[in-house]
Design goal:
- By secondary structure, the chain is of the alpha+beta class.
- 55% of the residues lie in helices and 15% in strands.
- It has 22 helices and 26 strands.
- The strands form seven sheets. Strands 7, 8, 9, 10, 11, 12 and 13 form a seven-stranded mixed beta sheet that branches. Strands 20, 21, 22, 23, 24, 25 and 26 form a seven-stranded mixed beta sheet that branches.
- The radius of gyration is 34 Å and the shape is elongated.
- The two termini are 61 Å apart.
- Residues 280-391, 712-819 form the ABC3 transporter permease C-terminal domain.
- It is found in: Cell membrane.
- The chain crosses the membrane at residues 41-64, 274-297, 332-352, 372-395, 464-483, 489-515, 544-564, 711-734, 755-778, 798-818.
- Its main location: membrane.
- Residues 396-406 have a biased composition (Low complexity).
């Protein structure tokens, strides 16, 4: 290596260190002089990191969730039917118990590695109050194990052991049986094995617990049981002709945490639904968070446009400016993001507790495991990266100096030259210094607006891009009309996101258009303050557009989310009132198969089993066919599902019951009120054998998914409202030089207050109306596609949304101006 190259490398290293040092000095200086703006950014980044951290923990916890092992905790191996149904590679969990032949227990007793085999079956014992009690054989209690608290085990057919939860003392009588003991465990009546077989069915059992011989490990026991089942060709209890082609009927051998799948059948479907819910919500959270941070950071750095332009003029290199801006932004964002991540853990633990408790009622365990706790650190890193990326464009385009007054006409974003305020200036008001509004408004237009730089108005290219994005959003909303159910909801949600992005691109142009439309009434009603508001808005329409966009976001998001849920509830309640009720109806789910873009899909639908007596009190709103023909081998289909399946009266549908049994049924009627009654109506007698407990009363709707969805919408809306307040606060703080100059040229405090109030009113009203307009198209498309009715938003929710936006706008626009 030559001496020249060494010296060149040394100079390059010193230059790099010099540039880094200059960037650090400039960043520290900017942080000192822009403290109020960066404090607002700190709070917004903290809230964003906190929300993203909570969602990261929620997604991780749900992903790690599994059906809880409780009733079979003492059995290392459990044999059960395959509680999933299959279709060309797709699979779905079953919601009704698929049983296995009782003879499988005798088969396993002959396996040398097996010490004891306990068959378990659950059934319902009728009670005088009509509700009944769950019943099980007493020997199955040792699989938990649950022991006696007092009394003795049942020995005769007329004796039972009651669990402590039933609060039945020894000697009491229940459902014709005498209580001889009290045991641990959930609400259950325990019977002798012969009596349990008589009540629950001698030919089938729910599951079989297998206990090992001395010295046999769980792995060896599982292998031996699997081999015995395969050798015997043991399958589930369905008839061969009722088993779908892809369902082999092979029995499953469960160990470890997998044993929970044999206990609570509702746990796996709930787990899948929660995972899908949080996956969809997470995408929305990331979109909202990214838009919030981008808008806020851009506005915080826009105040430094003149300063950055000056640095460029005196020789600062683009790399130095980018390093300065990124260092400045990340210096604020890093501690805020880390603090938000740290707070996410206790906040999530507190809020997640009721979710865990409610999921446990259906047997789903959602534990917060220690290795999931670092998840918020990842979202904190993403938050800091988003802040750095949002800061780069501001460094690359520092702005241009304002043109001197009189150098040429200045065009507004609407394409029109501004009104010459000197032509008809309003009289000066008491409290000012007597200067005209023309002079007060003209001075900042030429001199202020962020330390000497004027933002460019919306370019034609940006306007065309914004209109194109809005068109894409409208097209997405239009496709929702032609899609059923979930497809319509997904298309409507995508339309909102796309249209909000279009409004972001068109923000300055929209602001200029609104000011042009409202200029005359604002000047007339607001006097000098109104004149000032119009002049300032036209001088910096980009600022006004940036203030409007977060309000559009929160309004559109809240209206679509709240309106969709409220519309479904409203339409369901209307249909339920019109349809009436039936005492003996049997509620369950059925499955259908289809292809989507060439991939197999299994859909689950609510169904109702009815009798001829039930149909006398029900009015499903028949549109074709005759419900009087409903009986074995037939089905009635809701209009939406009939359209999706391409089925009509006389056609044959292939369905799978909740236990996976396949049936070919002839359509005898098509009805309208499927939201209240379910997608299918079937004969109760034909449906009952495929329901785990046909005599059980319908379980109350736990509504966990809806509660979580509502909470998520509230959290995202709160973040968007914080973005509104933060953005307006940063804008107001950055306009301190402007307000000071207006005071020096004669504007009074009252006139400046009126100016700020008028601007806040324009921002709030425009954002609300534009957000409602953005939400109206996709929400209407969704409502007509899925409900065949106009959308519904309760007046109370609408009023709360308007009040929240107005108060937030006022807080962000007016309160910072009161502080010196």
């Amino acid at each position: 290596m030559t001496g020249d190259s060494v010296r060149s490398g040394a100079r390059g290293a010193r230059g790099a260190r010099g540039r880094a040092g200059a960037a650090a000095v400039l960043a520290r200086a900017a942080l000192r002089h822009q403290r109020r703006s960066w404090r607002t950014v700190f709070v917004a980044v903290l809230a964003t990191s906190l929300l993203l951290g909570c969602f990261a923990l929620a997604v991780t916890t749900v992903a790690l969730g599994r059906p809880a092992v409780e009733r079979y905790a003492a059995a290392p191996v459990v044999v059960t039917a395959d509680q999933t149904t299959h279709h060309r590679g797709a699979h779905a969990p079953l919601t009704e118990r698929l049983r296995i032949p009782a003879g499988v227990a005798d088969l396993l007793r002959s396996v040398p590695e097996v010490a004891r085999v306990v068959a378990d079956r659950e059934f319902r014992v009728p009670a005088d109050d009509g509700t009944g009690y769950p019943g099980r054989p007493w020997e199955a209690a040792e699989l938990a194990p649950w022991g006696l608290r007092e009394g003795r085990a049942p020995e005769a057919a007329g004796e039972v052991v009651a669990s402590a939860e039933l609060d039945l003392p020894v000697g009491a009588r229940v459902a014709g049986y005498r209580v001889v003991g009290v045991a641990d465990g959930p609400a259950t009546l325990w019977f002798t094995a012969p009596e349990a077989a008589r009540l629950g069915g001698r030919d089938t059992v729910d599951a079989i617990g297998v206990l090992p011989a001395p010295g046999v490990s769980t792995g060896a026991l599982s292998t031996a049981v699997r081999a015995a089942l395969d050798t015997a060709g043991a399958v589930d209890a369905r008839a061969a002709g009722e088993r779908p082609a892809d369902d082999t009927g092979e029995l499953r051998v469960l160990t470890g945490d997998g044993r929970g799948a044999a206990e609570a059948l509702g746990a796996t479907p709930l787990w899948r639904d929660l995972l899908a819910l949080f996956g969809a919500i997470s995408g929305t959270v990331l979109m909202v968070a990214g838009l919030v941070l981008a808008t806020l950071i851009t506005r915080a750095l826009r105040h430094r446009a003149g300063e950055l332009a000056l640095l460029r003029a005196v020789g600062a290199q683009p790399g130095q400016l980018r390093a300065t801006v990124c260092r400045e932004a990340t210096t604020v964002a890093l501690p805020a993001a880390l603090l938000g991540a740290a707070l996410a853990v206790p906040v999530f633990a507190l809020l997640w507790r009721p979710v865990t408790a409610q999921a446990a009622t259906v047997g789903l365990g959602l534990p917060v495991v220690p290795w999931a706790l670092p998840a918020p650190l990842l979202t904190a890193a993403l938050t800091v990266a988003a802040v750095a990326l949002a800061a780069l464009p501001a460094a690359g385009a520092p702005g241009r100096p304002a043109a001197p007054r009189g150098s040429g006409k200045r065009q507004t974003p609407g394409g029109r030259a501004p009104d010459r305020c000197a032509a008809t200036p309003p009289p000066a008001r008491p409290g000012g210094t007597g200067a005209s509004a023309c002079g007060a408004a003209a001075a900042p237009a030429a001199s202020v607006g962020g330390s000497g730089g004027q933002p460019r108005p919306a370019s034609a290219g940006r306007r065309i891009a914004g209109l194109g994005v809005l068109g894409l959003g409208a097209a997405s909303a239009g496709t929702a009309v032609a899609l059923p159910g979930d497809g319509a909801a997904a298309a409507a949600g995508a339309a909102v996101v796309v249209m909000v992005i279009g409004c972001t691109l068109l923000g300055p142009w929209i602001a200029g258009w609104v000011l042009g439309l409202l200029a005359r009434p604002l000047r007339r009603l607001g006097g000098v303050g109104g004149w000032l508001a119009v002049a300032q808005g036209r001088a910096d329409s980009a600022r006004l557009g940036a203030a409007i966009v977060p309000i559009v976001l929160v309004t559109a998001f809240a209206v679509v989310q709240l309106g969709a849920d409220a519309s479904v509830r409203h339409a369901t309640a209307q249909q339920a009132r019109a349809a009436g009720s039936a005492e003996g109806a049997l509620a369950t789910t059925v499955l259908t198969t289809r292809s989507e873009l060439g991939d197999p899909v299994i859909d689950r639908h609510p169904a109702l089993g009815v009798t001829a007596e039930d149909l006398r009190t029900l009015d499903p709103g028949v549109r074709a066919g005759d419900l009087g023909a409903l009986g074995p081998g037939t089905v009635a289909v809701g209009t939406d599902r009939a359209r999706a399946l391409g089925a009509g009266v006389g056609d044959t549908l292939t369905l799978r019951y909740g236990d996976g049994t396949e049936a070919r049924l002839r359509v005898v009627a098509v009805y309208e009120r499927s939201l209240a009654l379910g997608a299918f109506l079937l004969d109760r007698g034909q449906l009952a054998p495929h329901v785990s407990d046909p005599d059980a009363p319908p379980a109350p709707d736990q509504d966990l998914e809806r509660r979580l969805s509502t909470a998520a919408v509230a959290a995202i809306a709160a973040l968007a409202l914080l973005a509104v307040c933060s953005t307006l606060t940063v804008i107001t703080v950055g306009r301190r030089p402007e307000r000071a100059l207006l005071r020096r040229v004669g504007a009074g405090r009252g006139q400046l207050g009126t100016m700020l109030a008028v601007e806040a009113a324009v921002v709030a009203v425009t954002g609300l109306l534009l957000g409602a307009a953005v939400a109206a198209l996709p929400l209407t498309a969704f409502s007509w596609a899925t409900l065949h009715a106009p959308p519904h938003l309760p007046p109370g929710q609408a009023a709360a949304l308007v009040a929240a936006v107005v108060l937030t706008t006022a807080a962000g626009s007016l309160l910072p101006a009161l502080r010196r």
